[in-house]
Structure formats: structure tokens, C-alpha cells
Amino acid sequence: MHEIPEDFRLSSYSYDLPEERIAQAPSPRRDASRLLVLDRASGAMTIDSFAGIVERVPQGALLVANNSRVLPARVFGRKPSGGRVEFLLLSPLPLLLEAARAVSADGFEAEAEGLLRASKGPRPGETVRFDEHFALTVLERGGFGRARVRLRWRGDLAGLFLRLGHYPLPPYIRRPDTPEDALRYQTVYASEAKLGSVAAPTAGLHFTPEVRQALAARGVDWAEVTLYVGYGTFSPVRSADIREHVMHREYVEVSRETAQAVAQARAQGRPVVAVGTTSVRALEGARRATGAIAPYTGWTDIYITPGYPFATVDHLLTNFHLPESSLLIMVSALAGRGPILRAYRHALDNGLRFFSYGDAMLIL
Fold first, then answer.
1. 118 has pLDDT over 70
2. Domain 6-69+181-363, classified CATH 3.30.450.40, yes or no
């Protein structure tokens, strides 16, 4: 049996994280979170407040952010027996609406993917009712809670989720969602027209309108992509050899305007800074699909591991990621596994907070 090279061993991406360092709530102000800056060339690390990013991002840089909006995609219903069922929608809402079939004057149905959780079942063929206007029938059960279902609803599906749904906070946030999460688990630039992510593009949660204005005043440009965050982003890596992991696909939109902005920045030697790993996936996935820095709308299952030749992104703003996750593997592909694990150690030694509502890291 061949030995797995260290950079491809899942165990190489492990680190010890005390439970109390996992942020359970956002910082009082978005830009009051902290920022660890890693200079890849020198290995130097400095810690600043997030507002300090204005002076840290190179002048003339192009920031590319994911403008998708989080849907309160977790809904609770009942089986005919009365048993409680939790359903988390994974299919991108815009595609679901596009595929919907009219079954009455104001009634629709569409097949969807999601995660089902219940003490027992439900089995294929069973129905789960969320309210009088909204139900699902289980078509097929898969592993790890995944299921294919047929949703049936009357009226506006987005409105039903907004009324009945809960924000799908990650399982390491050990509390129910609150009205504050409806505000703070969205970026300030999330687009109403891009509603449908099941998790926030968390690197962007730190931005305020004031920080964006200050960046623009320094000559830093801004462009947006859309990646509807789904199971691919948070699905755990379970293979001892990380190369055997298969990413779940996610739906991305890279507009002509953004593709041109990225291509122009690269042609002019101006750095492209991705805001979050989802922006990296959107840009690099689009380039892989088209063979160029070009507009793209469609699915990507791109999986970025050490040795990957980045073609669109120079620097990355990101939060701190779970041990042995595809996101930690991606940032290690950009900056090197050793430097990233040293930076994580430095963050822990200096009291930074981890994961979705935690602090940020700028890789230059």
C-alpha cells in the first residue's frame, strides 16, 4: 500500500480547537471583529481590527464578493402520524422556481434535494406538511440525511420560507436562530434577487457600508459573483486521502461585467482579492468550465487541493475553517499547509474567534 503524501493526508489538516473559541454570536459591530493578516512572501503575521483592512488591501486591487442571500431554508413539519420532521432545502431556490410546474391556479410542485431529520423516517412515499399551503413527499432517501423530495406549495415559495423557515446556523452554533441572525447572518451587500443560499458567505459578514466606502476612496474596486451556498461547501471530507473526496456541486453565476473586471485587473497587474472561499469557487469554477476568464452560469463541483494552479485569484479574505474541511484544504492550497496551520496557531494564541461568526484572515 502506497503511503499518502503528507499534503494529501486528511489527518494533516487537523488542529486542536477548544470549544470556547467557536464563536456562538457575531461581534457587537461587523467591522469590530479582528483580522489576522498573513504575508505569504515573508511569513509575517499581524493582527488588526477588521476595519484595518482598508489599509491592508493593496491599492488598485479588485475585491470580488459573493452577493448570494441566505434563505431561512430550515422548516419544521409533521408526518401524518404527528411525528416532527426537519427539512433543510439544498436546491438553489431560483432553479427550483424555474423548474416548478403549475398544478392549480396558484399551486405548484417541483423536485428538490434536501436534508431530512426525524426520530423515525419519513420513508419514500410519505408526506410531511409544513402548513396548509406547503408540504413535501419523500421520493428517495440517501446517505447522511440527504433526500430527494417533491415540494408542493401554493402562492410564493420564497415567501413561505421567509414566513415559516429558520436560518440554518451551522451545528457548531449551539443555539436556535434569533431575529438578530436574520440581520447578522447576511452580508450588507446580499442581493434580494439572489436569495437561495443555505449558509452565509461568512468572510463578507464583516463588511460595513463605511468600510466599503473607505476602500473605494483608496482606489479599491468591487465586483460580485453569485454562488448559492449548498452542501458542497460544508459537506465533510471523509476520505483518508483527500484526493478521493468528491465535492457536491453548487450553482454559480459570473456576469459579463465581473468577468471583464477580473480579466482587466489581471491584464493590468492589479491583484484580485476574493472575499471568501465561495468567491474563489465561483471564479475558478467558471474559468475551469469555460477555459477562460469569461461569463458563466451553471454548476461547479471544483475541488481545490494543494498543487492547484490558481488562475483568477491572487489573495483571499476568509474566516477560520473547521479541521479536516475542504475549505481548510483550499486555503492551504493557496498559502501552503504549514503557513496556514501556523497562522491558525497564532490566531488561537491571540484569542481570535473561529468559524462563521468568528474573526477573519487576509492572505496576501
1. yes
2. no
**Closest among 301, 294, 208 to 250, alpha carbons compared:** 301
**At the top level of CATH, which class does the domain 73-165 belong to?**
mainly beta
Residue 48 to residue 70: CA distance in whole angstroms: 28
Determine the average pLDDT of the residues in 264-272: 98
φ, ψ of residue 22 to 5 degrees: the values are: -85, 115
Instruction: Indicate whether 325 pLDDT > 60.
Output: yes
Q: Assess contact for 64 and 274: CB atoms under 8 A.
A: yes
The boundaries of every CATH 3.40.1780.10 domain in the chain are: 6-69+181-363
If we measure between CA atoms, which residue out of 222, 293, 216, 297 comes closest to residue 260? Answer: 293
Q: Indicate whether 270 pLDDT > 60.
A: yes
Asked whether 337 and 328 are in contact (CB, 8 A), the reply is: no
CB 83 within 8 A of CB 119: yes
Closest CA to 361 of 349, 245, 346: 346
Q: Which of 164-168, 231-235, 286-290 has the lowest mean pLDDT?
A: 231-235
Start-end ranges of CATH 2.40.10.240 in the chain? 73-165
Residue 140 makes CB contacts below 8 A (sequence gap 6+) with 124, 147, 148
For 61-83, what is each residue's pLDDT tens digit? 999 999 999 999 999 999 988 89
Residue 92: is the preceding peptide bond cis (ω within 30°)? no
Q: Taking 60 as the threshold, does the pLDDT of residue 317 lie above it?
A: yes
